[in-house]
Each structure stands twice: as structure tokens, then as C-alpha cells.
Automatic annotation (TrEMBL):
Catalyzes the dephosphorylation of undecaprenyl diphosphate (UPP). Confers resistance to bacitracin. It comes from Hansschlegelia zhihuaiae. It comes from the Bacteria. This is Undecaprenyl-diphosphatase. Belongs to the UppP family. The gene is uppP. It catalyses: di-trans,octa-cis-undecaprenyl diphosphate + H2O = di-trans,octa-cis-undecaprenyl phosphate + phosphate + H(+).
Length: 277
């Protein structure tokens, strides 16, 4: 391990923190950046393990609300329904992700072309959905918004969002993007859709972290631990900043800026892959 590797790990950690909770695909960004930097992690575990920094960032931001839910859990049906909704939404990706883990890591994670195409297609979908949720000429919404509280989504809706999240097993699709789009199409407001995606990220990313660590426990080295620690710290700090401001940004500007960013990055990555391999 050298200074260059540590710098690359720090840069990738910053990118992870900046993109994890935005609908732009943090994994896609990490894989493309790592590909062009020539950064290689053992078993492609670095990209998954540094997500723990982003998980802890969102736990820190929502600590008061999460503590309130935990305290009310034994006596409050609304708190129990919220926790059940998040767990129900988590299950599809947990089951399918575990079943396809080898294919995802050994094939999809090793194919930058898949990432680029997914980024571009996901950007186009996000533009379409964002346009549906723009205010109409009379100032009202163009589509029916039935759910404005992320902590009160019906269980059936949570399960449907969970299946939408399974699309993000393809790198470049975006976990937050797929869950946000799913929630929007089922009548959630932009802010509620993004916030539910935040809550769902906690068990999903924690599960991916634990499973990947377990699967690759025999091939990780001390050098890997140092790189992961640097990436983790950078991801935590940057994710902490992003989570504090992104909901207000989405409420004001919608998802179009992220859609265009996806398209630009995907197109640039596609050009780079075709030219340089």
C-alpha cells in the first residue's frame, strides 16, 4: 500500500458519501472511477464496505427520530407499522441479492459498459418521473399525491418499493433512484419518497456490508483494512453534509439536476470505455 492508493481510497470515499443518498448510483460512480484510476480492491469489497460510513452518517442525522421510534415501539402501533414497513421493503433485495451475489460481483461489477448504460437509462426515467411531479399551470400537482409522510407508507406500498430496490442490484441503476422512482409512481411526494429511501438505506446497506464482509473474510488483508478505513472516514463526513441538505434541495429543485448528471457521467464513461477499454 502506498500514498497513491490511500489518496485514491480517500477520493472514492468522498464520491461514495456525495452520491450514496442521491439518485445517481454511488456504486456506478465508484466502479467507473475505480476503473479509470486503475484502483483494484480485493473481491470488489472496498466499494461495499465503505458504505458503512454513509450508513452511520444517516443514523447520526436521524438519531432523534430513530430513538423516538425505538422508545415508542412497544406501545405505539404507528411506530411498529413504520418499522414493519422498512423491514418489508428490505426483504426482496436481501433475498435476491444473496442469491445472485456471485453473479453481481463477478460479472456486473466487472462490466463498466453495464454501469454506463444503466446511468443513462436511469437518468431518462428520472427526467420523466420528475416532469410528472412538476406543478401544473394552476399551481397544483400534475399527478395525484397521496402519501406525504415517509413514516406512514402502507405495507403494500413498502413491499412494492422493496421490489423496485432490487433493480439497483444492477450497478449504475441506483438504490436511492429506484426506490424514489417507485415511491413517486405510487403517489408519494418528492420529499417523502427521498426520506423513505433514506430509512430503507439503513438495513439494506448494513445487510450488504455484513454479507460482503462475511463472504470475503478469508481474502481480506491488513492493507485492505487501511484503505477501507480511509474510505469509510471520507464517506462518513461527506454523507453527513449531503443528508443534512439534500431534502431541501429536492423540495426546491426536484430530481432533474440528478437526472442530467447521470446522463452526462454515463455518456462520458461510455465514451471512455469505447475509446480506452
Amino acid at each position: 500500500m502506498d500514498i497513491v492508493s490511500l489518496f485514491e481510497a480517500a477520493l472514492l470515499g468522498v464520491v461514495e458519501g456525495l452520491t450514496e443518498f442521491l439518485p445517481v448510483s454511488s456504486t456506478g460512480h465508484l466502479l467507473l472511477l475505480g476503473h479509470f484510476l486503475g484502483f483494484e480492491s480485493t473481491g470488489k469489497t472496498f466499494e461495499v464496505l465503505i458504505q458503512l460510513g454513509a450508513i452511520l452518517a444517516i443514523v447520526a442525522v436521524y438519531a432523534a427520530r430513530l430513538t423516538s421510534v425505538a422508545v415508542r415501539l412497544p406501545s405505539d402501533p404507528a411506530a411498529r407499522r413504520f418499522v414493519a414497513g422498512v423491514l418489508v421493503a428490505f426483504l426482496p433485495a436481501a433475498v435476491i441479492g444473496a442469491a445472485l451475489h456471485g453473479f453481481i460481483k463477478q460479472v456486473l461489477f466487472e462490466t463498466p459498459l453495464v454501469v454506463c448504460v444503466a446511468l443513462i437509462l436511469g437518468g431518462l426515467v428520472l427526467l420523466w418521473v420528475d416532469e410528472r411531479h412538476r406543478p401544473a399551470a394552476d399551481g397544483g400537482p400534475q399527478c395525484d399525491i397521496r402519501h406525504d409522510d415517509a413514516m406512514r407508507f402502507p405495507l403494500g406500498m413498502c413491499l412494492a418499493i422493496g421490489f423496485c430496490q432490487c433493480l439497483a442490484l444492477i450497478p449504475g441503476v441506483s438504490r436511492s433512484g429506484s426506490t424514489i422512482v417507485g415511491a413517486l409512481l405510487m403517489g408519494a411526494s418528492k420529499r417523502a419518497a427521498a426520506e423513505f429511501s433514506f430509512f430503507l438505506a439503513m438495513p439494506t446497506m448494513a445487510g450488504a456490508f455484513a454479507y460482503d464482509l462475511y463472504k470475503n473474510r478469508s481474502i481480506l488483508s491488513l492493507d485492505d483494512a487501511a484503505l477501507v478505513a480511509v474510505g469509510f472516514a471520507c464517506a462518513f463526513v461527506t454523507a453527513l453534509i449531503v443528508v443534512r441538505f439534500v431534502l431541501d434541495f429536492i423540495s426546491r429543485h426536484g430530481f432533474a439536476p440528478f437526472a442530467w448528471w447521470r446522463i452526462v457521467v454515463g455518456a462520458a464513461g461510455l465514451a471512455g470505455v469505447l475509446v480506452y477499454g
